[in-house]
Write a structure and sequence with these properties.
302 residues; alpha/beta; eight-stranded parallel β-barrel; 12 helices; 39% helix; globular; binds ligand G3I; glycosidase; carbohydrate metabolism; xylan degradation
């Protein structure tokens, strides 16, 4: 095949990108999006600060714009993200009572998932809950007020809200098998699977430096799938987009049967959150970079 999405589909996978609602009107952007990608993650539009800026008052309009675009163009959606310590409105961060926070969190999950029910392939239920360099959770209002059980609570609530959506835990710096953070997330998934806490997938954000993934990335992916979950590369970008680094990353997924797909975190370098790093597959003018060809060929095409 000659596009990323079609070539990924040839092995039963998807190839996605983060999308900003505000860019859908840019015809260069939309043309590449609809030609190359068959999965979409809203870059910011499903986050708590946008969807529930004040308690009980929900705004799904920006995300609806993206979902409508996806439905009109045969693209599936990843939902990102329900419970995260960033882009969290201050009214949530100032809750100190556990019963209040539990009901606020559960209501947020249930209301957002119900709004999009049937339209989301996989949700990042909890994002970035582990501390860097540690096997433990990071501090956050959820951790500090609800304790370790908040992640389990979120996943159980999510399963009840939309039983047909895949439920993912998503994080960065969990690609290197020997990192403490990787081991912490692995232990959580193993515990969830052993106790029947619903979890279907782990998202490896894959924000890499120019060297690309750590050598142990394939080991990490296969060790997680051995626990009985899918793995996905959810926010891939690589400083300076070296062809070898991109190729190694894509091959790490392709070589693991339960690696369901890859999402890059933006279309053109000018769309990236990493300004100056030029970490994506298209340049600011929308031209394919050498990394594009490396990815297409690592997917088995070109
Ligand atoms: O929308 C406002 C705009 O109204 C305002 O004028 C402007 C002034 O700063 O800010 C705009 O909001 C920005 C928003 O992106 C939309 O462009 C925020 O400041 C900015 O902080 C926010 O950055 C996002 C970042 O998450 C925030 O944490 C990036 O776009 C987004 O790519 C990035 O994505 C995260 C993933 O969700 C989780 N993993 C890491 C990844 C990279 O940081």
């Amino acid at each position: 095949a000659t596009t990323l999405g079609a070539q990924a589909a040839a092995s039963g996978r998807y190839f996605g990108t983060a999308v900003a609602a505000g860019r859908l009107g840019d015809s260069t952007y939309a043309t590449i999006l609809d030609r190359e990608f068959n999965m979409i993650t809203p870059e910011n539009e499903m986050k708590w600060d946008t969807t529930e800026p004040s308690r009980g008052s929900f705004n799904f309009s920006p995300a609806d714009q993206i979902v409508n675009h996806a439905q009109a163009h045969g693209q599936r959606m990843r939902g990102h993200t329900l419970v995260w310590h960033n882009q969290l409105p201050s009214w949530v961060g100032s809750i100190t009572d556990a019963n209040t926070l539990r009901s606020v969190m559960d209501n947020h999950i249930t209301t957002e998932m119900t709004h999009f029910k049937g339209k989301i392939y996989a949700w990042d239920v909890v994002n970035e809950a582990f501390a860097d360099g540690s096997t433990q959770h990071r501090g956050s209002v959820f951790q500090n007020v609800l304790g370790n059980g908040f992640i389990e609570e979120a996943f159980r609530t999510a399963r009840a809200a939309d039983p047909s959506a895949k439920l993912c835990y998503n994080d960065y710096n969990i690609e290197n098998w020997s990192d403490a953070k990787t081991q912490g997330v692995y232990a959580m998934v193993r515990d969830f699977k052993s106790r029947g806490v619903p979890i279907d997938c782990v998202g490896f954000q894959s924000h890499f430096g120019s060297g690309g993934p750590p050598a142990s990335f394939p080991t990490t992916l296969s060790n997680f799938t051995a626990l009985g979950v899918d793995v996905q590369l959810t926010e891939l970008d690589i400083a300076q987009a070296p062809t070898t680094a991109y190729s190694n990353t894509v091959k790490a997924c392709v070589n693991v049967s339960r690696c369901a797909g890859i999402t890059v975190w933006g279309i053109r370098d000018s769309d990236s959150w990493r300004s100056g790093d030029n970490p994506l597959l298209f340049d600011g003018g929308g031209n394919k970079k050498p990394a594009y060809d490396a990815v297409l060929s690592a997917l088995g095409g070109g």
